[in-house]
Design a protein that fits this description.
Blueprint lengths: L7 E6 L9 H14 L2 E7 L4 H10 L4 E6 L6 H13 L2 E6 L1 H4 L9 H10 L2 E4 L18 H7 L5 E3 L7 H10 L3 E4 L10 H8 L6 E2 L7 H6 L10 H12 L4
Parallel strand pairs: 1-2, 2-3, 3-4, 4-5, 6-7, 7-8
Helix pairs in contact: 1-2, 3-5
Amino acid sequence: MQPAPLAAIDPFYALARVAGAPIEPAIAAALAELDRFGVERAGIGVDEDPELARAALASHPRRFFARCEVDPRGGMDELRRLERLARELPLRAVTASPARLFLPIDDKRFYPVFAKCVELDLAICPRLGVPAERAPLSPQKVERIDEVAWFFPELRIVMRDGCEPWQALAVLLMRKHPNLSYATSALRPSEIPAEVIAFANEDGAHQVLFASGARDERFYKELPEIGLARAVWPRFLRENVARILKLS
């Protein structure tokens, strides 16, 4: 058994409050939760509750950094929004949900977003694999990320939400494309595919990174049991995400 994780970085933390509730208690509760589970820094979305997110980013810049969801159907207006957020906030990642948009990740309408991410030095983090919600899976087939990674070698791509049932293909593509990586978001530790763990323990230690799926006692009790080699743990918990998202 590996030691309990300490000082992790969680790029997909869900900062939230009850509608209309005060901001300060929500931030304090989030900080207490991060401390409880040994998470040193967390990436928070700025789309769901912009007021809360901006307050957290302003008051605790060493604990929080920003991510935002993108909709390439917005055209130039969406690219200008990304530029504005990158100027105003410590924005480090752009997330995308192809199935929810009914838009494949390799659709050419995504390409200006990819180019803008390269220009702004941001990582793109698409959901890939069969979606949990009632939405078509075709836009999130893992094979679609191959052309994107090939066409944009400077683009840092973090595949998330499991890539199932194509996790073996995801590993093959990471071996092919050094700009591809895999985050364990939306998965409990016991659900992380064996192919991904084996890859991390072999030649992919720099391409697999931690992200919480459910923050509770059982999640963190399971985490040390996932079978990572001792030398891989620091990369998995914090070094990879710090490098890929270019956190200071």
